[in-house]
Design goal:
alpha+beta, Deoxyribonuclease I, Chain A, six-stranded mixed beta sheet, 11 strands, 30% strand
Length: 241
């Protein structure tokens, strides 16, 4: 059997629990046409599952993970990608409770996909904590999952620190960011005036990157309008597997 490559577009976005400009959010997602949408700060409270399903319908995607009990994480995908799912699950991460911000649930939402032609890939969404101690614990958990994956891994997330942070340094031998975090063009936060790259799609060896960038505007959503959708800019990755 001849092995052929499989190209995927991954979009990772902290959606601010759908509190922003939903028209701009939906239009941007439609413009960008991701095969996989990795979400942080998905709806968690009132009608969380229904609201996520609503978003999936409006963007022409299926919910693979997320909704009630999803720890603020979700993964949406096209029907083509959904047909390749082997396993899926959300892994909780424990935290040290030090302030009100530390009660936000943390974890890793991951799906294992079969690659047409042979092989597999794991695609995950995560949202690291605001406190450094908890971020490190989360990074250690994520590193263990990557080491045990037995396949290339793609992780998109709101990492709450730049590449020089302790958690990112721990992950660096396993997961790299194809975008130069020092380049202002790659900055993602705050969306209205980005000064830091704290959102990224990280990859292991075995993932060939075709394009990687922070999204500042889309075909129908201008640069001054996109920050209304969320306080984070989305980050995009095109890969070949």
């Amino acid at each position: 059997m001849t092995r052929t490559s499989w190209e995927l577009r991954i979009l990772s976005w902290n959606l601010w629990e759908l509190r922003g400009d939903l028209v701009a959010l939906i239009e941007a997602a439609r413009d960008l046409r991701p095969d996989v949408l990795l979400i942080q700060e998905a709806p968690r409270f009132v009608l969380s599952t229904a609201r996520l399903q609503w978003l999936a319908r409006r963007t022409g995607r299926r919910v693979l993970l997320g909704g009630a009990g999803g720890r603020g994480l979700a993964i949406l995908a096209t029907e083509e990608v959904a047909a390749q799912v082997i396993r899926r699950g959300t892994h909780p991460v424990t935290q040290t409770m030090s302030d009100l911000n530390s009660i936000y649930p943390r974890g890793v939402a991951a799906v294992r996909l079969s690659i047409p032609g042979g092989g597999a890939v794991v695609v995950a969404s995560t949202h690291l904590a605001l406190q450094e101690e908890n971020r490190l614990r989360h990074a250690e958990h994520l590193a263990a999952l990557v080491r045990g994956a037995g396949a290339p891994v793609i992780v998109g997330g709101d990492l709450n620190e730049t590449a020089d942070g302790a958690a990112r340094r721990l992950l660096a031998p396993l997961l790299s960011d194809p975008v130069d975090g020092a380049d202002p063009a790659g900055h993602t936060f705050p969306a209205a005036s980005p000064s830091r790259r704290i959102d990224a799609v990280l990859v292991t060896d075995g993932v060939r990157v075709l394009d990687a960038r922070a999204v500042r505007s889309t075909r129908t959503v201008a640069g001054e309008r996109l920050p209304g959708a969320s306080d984070h800019l989305p980050t995009l990755l095109d890969v070949s597997l």
